[in-house]
Amino acid sequence: MELKISTSTQGDHTVMSVTGEIDLYTAPGLQTELMAALGDGEAKLIVDMSGVEFCDSTGINVLLAAHRFAREHGGEFQLAGPRSATRKVLQVTGLESVFSVIDDPVRVTGR
Question: Which CATH number goes with the domain that contains 36?
Fold first, then answer.
């Protein structure tokens, strides 16, 4: 399955909506898009995961690297609306406490 990525701005946050599967084949494209959205790292990025049907360890590693980059450069990185399968991976790996996970990107931006 193809990975679709779109980006919009809500207030001072960039919201990246991701749809499809994040795996070995699609993760490099996601990494490119994440790094472009983070720029110098000071961006406030919310990755809307509500359309992600599957995310393997390669995808988790890409998200983790982007999260680390943002934090090291004074930015913000949040995951929004991950489906139950992705949430379970985050819980099992202990990454749920590393990532800031929110239910809805709109809630954070006040829209």
Answer: 3.30.750.24
Q: Is 32 helix (H, G, I), strand (E, B) or coil?
A: helix
Residue 7: name the closest of 54, 39, 55 by CA. 39
Q: Confirm whether 35 is domain-assigned.
A: yes
Range of the domain at 18: 4-105
Query: What does the pLDDT average to over 13-41?
Result: 95
Closest CA to 65 of 42, 90, 35: 35
Residue 107 is predicted with a pLDDT of 58
Q: Total structural domains in the chain? A: 1
Parallel, antiparallel or unpaired: strands 13-22 and 44-55: parallel
Alpha-helical regions (H) of 1-111: 27-38, 57-72, 84-93, 105-109
DSSP 17: E
Q: Model pTM?
A: 0.90
